[in-house]
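#lab-general

N.A. 3:47 PM
ok so I finally got the sequence cleaned up, no stray characters, all 64 residues accounted for. can someone with queue access submit it? mine expired

B.Y. 3:52 PM
send it over

N.A. 3:53 PM
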Amino acid sequence: MRAKEIRERSNEELLSMERQMAETLFQHRLKNSTNQLTDNSQIRKVKRDLARVKTIIHERGLQS
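B.Y. 4:20 PM
back already:
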């Protein structure tokens, strides 16, 4: 997901996306530790998207 797409979303949507991505990251890490995750790059992708969402949430918090 690109930062431009994330910026177009509302604050409520960003907060729900953050919670969802954190849960997804946890699930991927759990599957990876039990050798059930087939594509390890998913962890990296979710981590980066989560960081993008958190950055934009933080930026909006500083503007207010």
